[in-house]
Design goal:
Layout: H1 2-8, E1 13-15, H2 33-46, E2 49-54, H3 57-66, E3 69-72, H4 80-88, E4 93-96, H5 103-115, E5 121-125, H6 143-150, E6 155-157, H7 159-163, H8 169-178, H9 205-222
């Protein structure tokens, strides 16, 4: 249902977790192989590219078979065996920034992947743990231009895991585009109250449509690169 809704809105890549790194061992842990097969069906039916998270070296063997992009989550940004294994894969890697990682640590984590021969790495900012408690994580948008200064890799932003609640997702998505992000990864659910994971931050299809409309307008402005300021 979600794949049908988002593909209608022109989305090209579909992220779903078959292996979920949950804070609580009592939370839904994902469907494993069965989940990967569902994702492969989504690819088949809707033509969406599949992004899914690896949480162990062994899970990459299966993900390589069923998905198009291997996600390394924030909690595993410092899992060096996992990074090396992703570097040996023939699929692009979406590397999320650890919640306490400096820019240098983030780039070094990417280099673990690059050094194994996999040059297709996309970085992802998803918010940091700070003293702030008005959001789930504090989105560090300054990292987007900071990455541009030192590194050729594309960087995308995940406003959902930073916001934690749906009300703040669209404003952060808009700000990400204004800051020059190469893309946005955002959580969507047709019945957020029934989601098995992260429902409070999931956009409805209607909100996703609104977000796309707003970020498209902002992208058109920032790409013109014509702001003149005087003080
Ligand atoms: C996710 O993308 O579903 C996820 C678990 O995010 P993060 O690793 O950024 O917490
Ligand atoms: Mn999530």
């Amino acid at each position: 249902t979600i794949a049908a809704g988002v593909s209608e809105l022109g989305i090209k890549l579909f992220r779903g977790g078959a292996y979920k790194p949950r804070t609580s061992p009592y939370s839904f842990q994902g469907l494993g192989l069965e989940g990967l097969k569902m994702l492969a069906e989504v690819r088949e039916v809707f033509g969406l590219g599949i992004v899914t998270e690896a949480i162990s070296v062994e899970s990459i063997d299966l993900i390589e078979k069923y998905a198009d992009v291997i996600q390394i989550g924030a909690r595993n940004m410092h899992n060096f065996d996992l990074l090396r294994r992703a570097g040996q894969a023939r699929k692009p890697v979406l590397l999320k920034r650890g919640m306490c990682a400096t820019l240098e640590e983030f780039i070094f984590a990417a280099e673990y992947i690059l050094l194994e021969g996999n040059k297709d790495v996309v970085l992802c900012e998803r918010g940091l743990r700070t003293f702030n408690d008005h959001t789930r994580n504090t989105l560090d948008l300054a990292v987007v231009p900071a990455v541009r200064d030192i590194c050729h890799l594309p960087i995308i932003v995940d406003p959902s895991h930073a916001a934690g609640t749906v009300r703040k997702v669209i404003p952060l998505a808009c700000a990400s585009v204004a800051a020059g992000t190469d893309g946005i990864i955002v959580e969507v659910h047709h019945q957020p109250e029934k989601a098995l994971s992260d429902g409070p931050q999931a956009l409805s299809f209607k909100m996703l449509g609104q977000m796309i409309e707003q970020v498209t307008q902002i992208a058109a402005i920032v790409r013109q690169d014509s702001v003149t300021l005087a003080t």
